[in-house]
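TEACHING EXERCISE
Course module: macromolecular assemblies
Task: Read the component lines below, then compare them to the predicted structure of the full complex.
Student: A.B.
Group: 4
Components provided:
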Amino acid sequence: MAGPLRSVGRVALADHVYDALYRNMLVGTIAPGSRLNIDQLARDLHVSPTPLRESLARLEAEEVVVKRPLAGYLATPLLTRTGVSELFDVRMQLEPWLAAQAADAGGEWPDDAEAPAPDDDFPRLAAKDAWFHDTVAALAGNGLARQALRRLNAHFHVYRLFARQGELPRALGGHDAVAAAIRSHDRTAAARAMRRHLAESRKQLVAIADA
Amino acid sequence: MAGPLRSVGRVALADHVYDALYRNMLVGTIAPGSRLNIDQLARDLHVSPTPLRESLARLEAEEVVVKRPLAGYLATPLLTRTGVSELFDVRMQLEPWLAAQAADAGGEWPDDAEAPAPDDDFPRLAAKDAWFHDTVAALAGNGLARQALRRLNAHFHVYRLFARQGELPRALGGHDAVAAAIRSHDRTAAARAMRRHLAESRKQLVAIADA
DNA sequence: TCGCACCATTTCCAATACGATATCTTTGAT
DNA sequence: ATCAAAGATATCGTATTGGAAATGGTGCGA
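Instructor-supplied answer key:
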């Protein structure tokens, strides 16, 4: 017996390859805009081209890489200033609403929330940031919205921009206010706190992203 | 000048396979929830398994198919009532705003807009619906929002639901009002018209989708 | 010196075959 | 009829091949 028990962990090799590529692009081992040589990557990751191509297809669907037909894949270039602007315009439409929904919902803000620490490195900060926003979406109870938000890869783009400047985000303190509002089930306060947090992040990012 | 001119047409076979699968799922040749046998599909489409796996990986990232590791791919099941509800909640956050932005923007509503006709079949209606909403997003000038909207695959899910009932959507008349408001650059009217249109569609769909 | 065309190399893309492993189905026993 | 085991089937990853296109470098000509 033991039931399905299937979704404990991923089993497909392509999923691990996907994670490896994603992480390497996040931390800059694979630079934005650089070409992705399939054969070379296959050697480096010790896999055959097949799961690699599969991973790249998925990454392409998420706009983490771009595909030039018959010319290979590229790591998606850094967001320009207008790109940052567009990204935060979309987030501004979704996330305050999600925060409000989360405050309404019955669920409670998890206790094991680890606040971003000053000595966190980029990957850890990115993970915590992604976790925070994803948790808000999860509490809101709209799976599709959560997916849509996830697919924006906001933390991915944001942290690559920070990494270029060697600068660290200052706006992550805003997480507390949002969490507090959700905990006290205050709809409008949650939306407002999220709006403030996003506006803060946006301000710092447009200053970083030129062009 | 003249630019690369490269993206005139797709060249990768996997892209054609992707389109074929998508279309077959839209019109019901591949039923919702049915299994997708890779070898069989490869024979039917006269391609090798290689581009098929790539296409399926992309479709999986877009949630058009679901992957059960070591057990193959499934055509995504029909949206349940809560799924429809979630979908339209997200659209309600994005599309009225996009319509308002489109009304603000300098661009004009294209003349060659073909209104949905009563004798259109499902694929044609789905195409026109998708075109309409995508055009609004395009005029809004936010490429990321447009992508995010596209990735929701709203018309895909909606038309599969209609197809099951053999029923045709009644709410497509609302397109006119939105287009008119955009043409006259009336922000609030555009948003309101889009909101009405979505509410109308939603009403008809939740009636169709049980569970 | 600069631009352009040409050519060789590299790379992508698809096809094919095979082995290992997990799942699905069917058969058979209780 | 229910359950379990065994065979059949499919997925998954590997390895390799060949063709076609794009890239990068070289040399010629203006």
